Amino acid sequence: MKEWLVFLLLFLSPVLSSVPIVLAYKSKAWTERLPPLSVFGIFISVLMSLYILFMLPEKQFSYPWIPEFGINFVFITDYLSRNMGVITAVIAFFIAIYGLDYMKGDYRPSWYWFFFNLFTASMLLVVYSDNLFLLFLGWEGLGAASWGLIGHWFRDDDNITYVGRAGRKVGPLELSWPPSFGGWRAISTIRFGDVPMFLALAGIWALSPTLNISEIEWGTLFETLGAGGTIILFLCLLMGLFTKSAQVPFSEWLMTAMTGPTTVSALLHSATMVAAGAYVFIKLTWYIAPWTLHGVHGLEYVYLLVLFIGLLSGLYGALCGSGMLERKVLLAASTMSSIGLMFAAAAASYWVDVEVGETHMNLAVLVAFWYMAVHAFAKASLFLVSGHLIHATHSRFLSGGLEFGKKMLPAFIVTIIATTFLVGIPPLTAYWVKSAMDEVMEHLFHEVGFLPLILLVLTSVVYSGLMAKFLALNFIKGEKPHHEHTHGGGLMKVGYALMVSVLFVLLYIIFTTEEGHEFIAAGAIMKHGTITISFGVGILALLAYMVALYRPQISSLAKLGTFLSDRMYLPFVNDFIMPKIGFSIAHVVQEYGNRGIDGFFNTVAIPGLFGAISRGIRKIQTGYLSRYISIVLGLVMILLVLVTVGGVWL
Amino acid sequence: MIELSTPLVMLLGALIILTICSVFSVKSHDLGFYGALIALILAAVAVTLLLPALRYYTAFVFVIALINLLSLKVIKSVIQGVDYGLVGLMALVTLSIFTTQNLALILAAFVLVSVPTYILVMVREGGANVEVGIKYITFMVLATVLFLIGAVTLAYTKNAFNGLLYILGYVMLVLGLSIEVGVAPLHEWVPDVFTSADPIPMSIIASLAKIVPFVIALRILISTSNSLTVSVTLFTAVLAAISMFTGNIGALTSKEHARILAYSTVANMGYLLACAVVIIKPEFFYFALTGALLMLFANAVGKIGFFNAIKAEGAFSPTMYLLAFSFIGLPPLMGFWGKLFILFSLVKVEYFWLVALMVLNSAISVPYYLRLARELGIGWKANLTNYICVAAVIITVITFLPDWFFRSMEVIAQAVGIAL
Predict the structure, then answer these.
(1) What ipTM goes with this model?
(2) Are residues B186 and A635, on separate chains, in Cβ contact within 8 Å?
(3) Chain B contacts of A610, Cβ < 8 Å?
(4) For residue B27, pLDDT beyond 90
């Protein structure tokens, strides 16, 4: 099979397969029949991504677009892309199957399926692009699609789609957000980061002969920029990555993004959007190889910043989640936490020059990537379960006792597997990856200190409790739901069962591959005669899990819980302080500047000038040939005389 | 004795078929159309055989000419039949303009493309637009005289250098070109003729007829350039800037659709004239040539679409908007690539102020193109006008990836020199 055809099918089949349902948007009969076609489009992408994984070599594929300007369709099938591509496509496919059931009877299926597939295609473009410009196209596609999907239920007419308790006010702010607001918040936050990111790409383009990530001479580029330039470049770039990946202080949009359909939340949290920011950072780090650039000034500060933003986001997300009672928002907070750990692990690579395997992959970067993979499948499973629970109980709040759990047995089992496999309990999948992460943080003792490891351990413990709370309050110790509709949902069950099963596959891969050996070694119980930190953290995670399972809610800490579930009042930055600043600027501009500016640009000066010139230009057209001839001949004669005189004089 | 090769025979055959069919088309109108069509096919094949790198250029000119021919079917003119022959002749000349290096032939080509438009401009249903004709012809004669004298003077200075004569020749050639295509401040005929002539012949004059003068002027200028060119080029740059502003600002307050298109032409001719600046660094000329031709094609199909829409009192709304976007210069439409390549070549020759003015002018043009699209856009009807507009849109999106065209122009740019 020709490579170009593989890439074409990979990116276009999801988009093209969702065009028919868009065209048929007016016909209820057709929009009910066409969703399987959209799912089939994603299935083609799955096949193509598998083809790339198993059949194509690790190399760059370049197809000319505007070669004169160094902008081409350049794809790369390196370790990261080929694996992430499969993860993205497979997760999107499983979620799409689930969506066939979940979105049945929705009021605008055409909108949903088009943006869902566009979302998938955009992420695949981000994953496989080697060219930064092309990557940015996918990046923007993610932004547009996320806006469409988060605000999918734009009518705001069903309280079950909201985030926050209706009518709850804290100070001047109502902590309740409808879907239309969620969509707007998402796009406005990420736009805030995309603009500086675009400037950073432009900067790289101006200074580097190529925009291909794998070919840019990063060391030379940073030396040209100097310490200040490198820091500014990275800050601009990181604005894009941090906003997209919802790291502090840009995390609010992710919480209110839960107003979208659950399938969207699942995709957004596992393999696209928030993962995109971390993925791009991992990829850039992979090629920048900062552990070889210790001579470059400024780079260390950048990686230090990412390390701590990641760790802080990790702890902040886990803490906030521990106080939350809304199913999806709790999971959203935990995702933010996990993504933070990915950033932190990848950033740690600056100080961790440990190579893995024959291809000499950096351990820290590899750990970040593997944690992304494990997290993606586990979190997608949990989201899909919570979507089913919301359907079954008609409530977005944690609820359901053991009796209910038995009725929802598949969901119950999937939740047990997904949570235990994710939190790092030995010897389940995430334990090995997290052990390697602990080891990575241990490497930082000498140069950064103990703080990174402490933060990581704290996060791991809280996170573990958080997941157990999700399990307990949904299936074991929660209130009895007011409404129970536990029948049906066959495809939904298929969706999350398939999703969670991949965690076993990942466990198998860890035990059978070269890079897995490094993780196994990190997860060993004893080293040099003492118990390893990794194993200790694993036991702590297990303990936290058990405790939270036993006591998922502590009523005496209700006030602390509210503080945490209100995200430590970070919404005030987004919904109060920032708008206040904006409005005060607007006020000043309106009162003092606008009339002048408006008058100059829009109403009086410039329009008047243009109008006058325009009329002047058109006044020449009197219709009389004699007048025209005198103008033209006059001009020609004057010019010729001038030229002659000038020429002679010269 | 000229040796007759197969392509040459084909070209001659095309001319003969065209002539005979035109003569007999007075009896049967369709004969004129099919004669022109066959001549076009023959000429296109001949040109491609002569210079394989010209195949994309040939394809574009062929399609534009074909649409011009088809659009003539909308109008019942008194010379129906012969008008196909006239368009056929213009197309034949346009197709073969890159195939000769002989100055006399090239100058003859200039006249051969110009003269048929004298008749076409007067075409209207059931009569002749004599007043418009007189206005137009007066300007064209002046343009032709200036252009030919300028060209010959420049050719003379190539062999016997004389600074004064070179500058005089240069200015005369540029002035001749400016009057011919409608560069401000010598554009007075454009708004009048565009608004009072019939839209269908105007769609031909605004499209097919613009290609040859520019190509010829660029070829002559680059073949005769010398150390004085750097200083005298400033004149062209200033003229280009004046034309952009006059066209775009003039169009802003124009209400009549044809008048907006007239000023749009003046602006576009300004963009095109800017390409002539690039001859001071011939190594970047292929960028300018690519830009100029893409711009000419984008202008041609855009004008064809809009004029046909004016004739039919509206066309399918999406096509109108896409053509407007192409004129504005939105990627990935052809108008964008034309402007991009021109801008890029101007950056290479370090005419930054002209680059800035051109970008500014693209912004000024946004309101009137959108207004045009909004006012001319209507629902879908299955008629010839809409098919023509759809064809125009297809051409503007076909250069979504412009690389293939650019590569072919890289080859052509090597062979633009004229034997002097």
Answers:
(1) 0.89
(2) yes
(3) 249, 252-253, 364
(4) no
Q: Which residues contact A392 (CB under 8 A, 6 or more apart)?
A: A408, A481, A484, A485, A486, A489
| pLDDT tens digits for range A553-573 | 888 888 998 899 888 988 888
Q: Which residues in B lie closer than 8 A to residue A640 (C-beta atoms)?
A: 168, 171-172
Task: State the number of CA atoms in the 13 A half-sphere of A229 facing the CB.
Answer: 13
Among B241, B265, B189, CA closest to A621:
B189
Note if the bond before B201 is cis, omega within 30 degrees: no
Alpha-carbon distances, residue B214 vs A548, B218, B278 (angstroms) = 80, 6, 13
Instruction: Closest CB to B175: pick one of A621, A636, A647.
Output: A636
Asked if A12 and A80 touch (Cβ cutoff 8 Å), the reply is no
Query: Residue A449: what are its φ and ψ, rounded to 5°?
Result: 110, -170
Q: Is A646 part of the contact surface with chain B (CB cutoff 8 Å)? A: yes
Q: CA B341, CA B66: separation in Å to the nearest integer? A: 27
Give the closest residue to A437 by CA, choosing from A534, A362, A350: A534
Yes or no: say if A96 and A38 are a contact pair by the CB < 8 Å rule. yes
The token duo for A526 is 């004893």
Contact list in B for residue A617 (CB cut-off 8 A) is 246, 249-250, 263
Residues of A in contact with B253 (CB under 8 A): 610-611, 614-615, 618
pLDDT digits (tens, 9 = 90+) for B363-410: 999 999 999 999 999 888 888 899 999 999 999 999 888 888 888 888
Over residues A360-379, the mean pLDDT reads 94
Placement of tokens 């041609």 in the chain: B300
pLDDT given for residue B2 in this prediction:
59
**Which of B130, B183, B192, B339 is best to mutate for the A interface (most A CBs within 10 A)?**
B192
Q: Nearest-CA residue of chain A relative to B400?
A: A65
Q: Which residues contact B303 (CB under 8 A, 6 or more apart)?
A: B202, B203, B206, B207, B261, B265
Question: Which residues does chain A have within 8 Å of residue B135's beta carbon, measured at their own beta carbons?
Answer: 625, 628
HEC profile of B252-297: HCCCCHHHHHHHHHHHHHHHHHHHHHHHHCHHHHHHHHHHHHHHHH
The contacts of residue A51 (CB under 8 Å, 6+ apart) are A1, A6
* Sequence-separated (6 or more) residues with CB below 8 Å from residue B238: none
Nearest C-alpha of chain A: how many angstroms from B387? 22
A646 — pLDDT class (breaks 50, 70, 90): confident
d(CA B245, CA A383): 58
Restricting to A residues 618-637, those with a Cβ less than 8 Å away from any Cβ of B are 618, 620-621, 623, 625, 628-629, 631-633, 635-636
